[in-house]
Amino acid sequence: MSNGLVLAIAAVLLCAVCIWAGVWIYMRRKYVDFTNAVCGSIDQILSGEGTGDFDFDDESLLSKIQMRLESLADITEAAARESEEQKKQVQSIVSDISHQLKTPIANITMYSDTALRPELSEETRQQCLRTLKNQVRKLDSLIQSLLQMSRLENEIIVLHPRENVLKNTLFEVAESIRLRAQKKGTEVTLECPENLHVYYDEKWTAEAIFNIVDNSVKYTGDCGKIRICAEPLEIYTKITVEDNGTGIAPEHINDVCRRFFREEKSSSIEGVGIGLYLTREIITKQNGYLKIKSEEGKGTSVSVYLPNQGK
């Protein structure tokens, strides 16, 4: 083999080695740059800075990975926000419950201690015991309401809407409150078509409407009037409870369905501020909604809208 051919082959091999080395160095640099870019994006996510600015129209592998990382960052951030919100919500609920339980427990302790005093007259002792019994009843009512609230919020209670005769349900609600209303001289009237069939969970919907009527009795003075009426509409059936009670301040209309909300002027009236909250939860879980209209000193109207399913 001639020297010229050997040199030519050697030159070709050398060129091939140089090209391969160049390609290897280039690919390694691209790999290192790519790895650094991905690691940089991950570091930005971990530090809460997002993935930085990049071209969403770029079709490169790096951009595709960065887009996935951006989505992951959004999901992680949303989960963190939700977790923080849930934490605040739990803290708020615990604080609210603690506040609600504190007063009746303090009263029970105070009246128990008073009733045990040996020098107390029998009449005063009996009065203390009656007050004590009343406080225990209030505490039991509060605990039952809290349990209902917890079970509804955690979906332990499952509603089962089915076809019911609405007038029968409303009649039971009216009758269950009538005696207490009569003691105040308050008139309760019911207006509902005889054969109006609506789809709802009978037990829990009755509870929801009872809470509204119960509020009307509490906030309507002596010789007041409460009207319960039902009206079929195209999509919903409207159930309205109207009273001529004290009414709600305009700035509090949107607050009355909040858990534990009570106006300052209502502090002397029995209640803990859970009734309308539970009502809204029950109705909302049946794809219905509430509307409240009120005027201070003239009265309040609370309307429940239940969907006409199956019609």
From TrEMBL:
Keywords: Kinase, Membrane, Phosphoprotein, Transferase, Transmembrane, Transmembrane helix, Two-component regulatory system. Residues 96-310 form the Histidine kinase domain. It is an enzyme of class 2 (transferase). It is found in: Membrane. It catalyses: ATP + protein L-histidine = ADP + protein N-phospho-L-histidine. PROSITE patterns: HIS_KIN (PS50109). GO terms for cellular component: plasma membrane. One of its GO terms (molecular function) is phosphoprotein phosphatase activity. The chain crosses the membrane at residues 6-27. CDD domains: HisKA. Its EC number is 2.7.13.3. The keyword Glycoprotein does not apply. It comes from the Bacteria. Its main location: membrane. One of its GO terms (biological process) is cellular response to phosphate starvation. PANTHER family: PHOSPHATE REGULON SENSOR PROTEIN PHOR. This is histidine kinase.
